[in-house]
Amino acid sequence: MKILFICGSYPPEKCSNADTSAIMVDILNKKGLDVEVMSNIDWKLSNWRNIRKIIKKSQADIIYIQYPGMGYKFSITPQILSFLNRRRVIVTLHEVSQLHIIRKLSLLPFSFCKRIMFTNNFERNYFHKIYAWTKQNKTGKIPIGSNISTYLDLPLKDRNRNQIVYFGQIRPKKGIEEIIELAKLIKKNDLNYTVIIMGRTYEKFYDFYQEMLALTEDTNISWLIDVSEKRVSEILGSNVIAYLPFPDGASERRGSLFAALSHHMIVFTTKGGQSLQEMNNCVTYINTPVDFFNYLIQDYNINTLMTDEKNKNSNINAFMNQYSWDVIMNQYIEEFKKVRQ
Which domain holds residue 98? Predict the structure, then answer.
């Protein structure tokens, strides 16, 4: 079985989509599948002839597409090639509900693909509301996993408990403003905590990053930008507390949440419409930075959570098993088989 794996970005390009794609391709290769990657190319329609040549030359049995992706930019080439090859195409559509209305409408050609995957049922149901003619039995849910391998995972008693870690993309609508608000409350009230904001930023969001950086000049925030995967793991695995105030709540779409949980951190986050009931025993829900600050003032709150480490880790492990990349890729292989039928 030969698979042509199409994605907007792939290493050495740096973005979460590139990281995810590299993990998926690596596991598929290890499982004995023949995978050719098509990425980091000119996706403009003016390059259509070359794109067609690549597809034809691959002689792939299955075309797998990850969409959207930063590398595609505003091109509709992925939609066109998916429609023309729809009988052998499986596509994973990410965060449909978060797309601009024009981008949502541009998903129309994908509705004719042989198989259509989503990372959670909320996004799957959202897609069906837009494209109601798409049969339920041609769509499915396969979650994402954490892009961060576990290099360090210390017992909680051996970790730094006075440092609060945020990990994720440095861009709007990721909760950065809430982190800064918390840090200002901590400094104003002379609470014995420092804050780390760790993640990756992109050229298109550089002005936002500079704006946030300026707001933190008089705070106890340390910025760790574009650090290595191993360094991310060392930070996550050596600290007790993670604060991830997602504007729309914790959900299966949040790779940074999975990274923190896989390092057995005590995670404080927000609850939203996509938050799963199974998460209740793995995280502590906090509505606002003020609520979290008030929680931190009562030091026994953290102590209580730390003393229940064994049960907490058991709950996390049971929850995270379904999000291991091996389990995820086995599900994709089953979907590839359906495309061949």
Answer: 2-144+324-340
Distance, CA of 216 to CA of 228 (rounded, Å): 23
Q: Are 189 and 137 found together in one domain?
A: no
Structure confidence by residue, pLDDT tens digits, 148-182: 999 999 999 999 999 999 999 999 989 999 999 99
Cis peptide before 109 (omega within 30 of 0): no
Instruction: Based on the fold, state whether residues 329 and 318 are members of the same structural domain.
Output: no
Same domain for 170 and 135, yes or no, is no
Q: pLDDT confidence of 42, banded at 50, 70, 90?
A: very high
150 domain-assigned? no
Selection from 170, 244, 166 nearest residue 202 by Cα: 170
Domain count, the chain: 2
DSSP code at position 98: G
As a dihedral over the C-alpha atoms of residue 147, residue 150, residue 152, residue 153, rounded to 10 degrees, the angle is: 110
Whether 149 is in a domain gets the answer: no
For residues 262 and 320, the answer to whether their CB atoms sit within 8 Å is yes
**Token digits of residue 136:** 């339920």
Q: Which class for 191: exposed (0-12), middle (13-18), buried (19 or more C-beta within 10 A)?
A: middle
Q: Which two three-digit tokens encode residue 195?
A: 């804050």
Neighbours of 313 (CB within 10 A): 16
Residue of 142, 77, 148, 62 whose CA lies nearest to 110: 77
Q: What pLDDT, on a 0 to 100 scale, did the predictor assign at position 300?
A: 63
Say what the pTM is: 0.92
